[in-house]
Every structure is written in C-alpha cells, then in structure tokens.
Amino acid sequence: MRNYSRFIPGEEIGAVEQWSFGAVDTASILLAAQLKAREDASDQAKNNEIKQQGYAEGFAQGHAQATLEAQRQMADFVANQARQAAQNFTQLFVSAQAQLADAEQVMAEGVLELACELARQLLRHELSVNPNALQPVIREALGLLVADNKSAMIRLHPLDFEVLEETMRAEFPSLSLTFLADATIARGGCLVESAGTVVDGTVEKRWRRAIATLGLHSPWQEAVHEA
Fold it and tell me: Is 193 left (phi over 0), alpha (psi -120 to 50) or beta?
C-alpha cells in the first residue's frame, strides 16, 4: 500500500508550474451557456408549440362558430323566404278566389238575364195564343177580394175580354162580376177591384215580382198592347 503522507524533499521537487483555473471556468461557463441556450430553445419551441396549438384551437373554434352562425343565418333566410312565399301565395290565392267569385257572379247574372229574356219571349208568345193562361190569375184575385163581398170588377185586354168573360161568369155564377175591356192592359194581365181594393194582376207587376226573387230588376219591356 502506498504511503501518500510521505514528506517530499525539496531536491525531489522539479520545476514548479503555476496552475490556473481560468480555462476550467471558461469551459464551465460555455457549457452552462450552451445548456441555458438549449433550455431556452426548448422553452421557446414549447411556447411556440403552445401558441400554435392555441391558434389552431382558436381558429377551429372560430371556424365552428362562424359555420354555426352561417347555418343559422341561412336557416333564418330560408324560413323568411318560405314565410314570405307562403304569404304571397295566400294573397294570390285569395285574390284569385275573389276574381273567380266575381267572374262567377258576372256569369251567373248573365245566365239569369239570358234566362229571363228567354222566359219573357216564351211568356209573350204563350199569352198571345192562350188567353186561358190568365184564368188562374183571375181566380186568385177573386179569392182574395170576395170573401166578404159578392161583387167585383175585372179589367182585361179587349182580346182577353172576348175569350174569358163568359167562361169566368160561368165559373163564378154566385158573384156579381163586371168585365171591362181596357186596351191599356197588356194581354195576359188584369186588374180586379172589389170594395175599393185592387189586386194588380198585370203582366208587368207579376214579372217584377217573379224576377225580384232572383235578384234582378229587368222590366217587362216592349209589352204587347194590341187594339
């Protein structure tokens, strides 16, 4: 075993070289600086990575929010367009219905007027060739007037007078009937008077009552007045 505690004589000591710690300190500082630079670089890289991740997350979140907002706006736009389209369609439908109703009303009135004109022509022809068509009118008027009276005056067109006087006297033998020929009364009509009360059985009057039930006001035009 070596003895390291031995005294070394001066003559055994050679040239003495002064030891300097400068080189060691510089190396340590450089090494520490390198380590610090590496740590700083690593920290910077981590910070950059965190920032990039934050940017990416923020971008993704913003993109998602922007997408949702765009979808919401699109849905609102579509809903508003659909609502507006529905309102426009409803207005068009109501307007079309109103126009159709007006057209139907005009057509109905035209058909009624045409029917009335045809009926007027048929009645004129019937009354001109068949005076007996007046008999129900006279019967109805007498039934209204002679309940308490036994006399009546009947005004007829002269041609109707010639045909109906004897027939009506024979039908009502118990009544005192006075027949008068009156050229102002159109054929097919009559005026029946009893005790101051007059029943208007003229064609004009009966025609107005008939067409009034249809909502029309067409007069009996060009009534036939034969002498």
Answer: beta
Helix 135-145 vs helix 158-171: crossing angle, to nearest 10: 60
Amino acid type, 4: Y
- Which of 36-50, 136-150, 158-172: highest mean pLDDT? 158-172
Residues 179-202 have pLDDT tens digits of: 999 999 999 999 999 988 899 999
**Tens-digit pLDDT profile for residues 201-219:** 999 998 888 888 877 777 7
Q: How far is CA 92 from the centre of its chain?
A: 6
The first and second tokens of residue 107, run together, are 């057509």
Structure tokens at 69: 């907002």
In 10 A of CB 173, how many CB atoms?
7
Phi and psi angles of residue 149, each rounded to the nearest 5 degrees, phi first = -120, 150
CB-side neighbour CA atoms (13 Å) of 221: 6
Bridge partners for 153 per DSSP: 178, 193
Length of the chain: 227
Residue spans of the domains in the chain: they are 31-129, 131-212
Query: How far, in Å, CA of 58 to CA of 52, rounded?
Result: 10
Domain 131-212 part of CATH 3.30.1050: no
CA-closest candidate to residue 120, choices 13, 222, 1? 222
Assess contact for 158 and 178: CB atoms under 8 A.
no
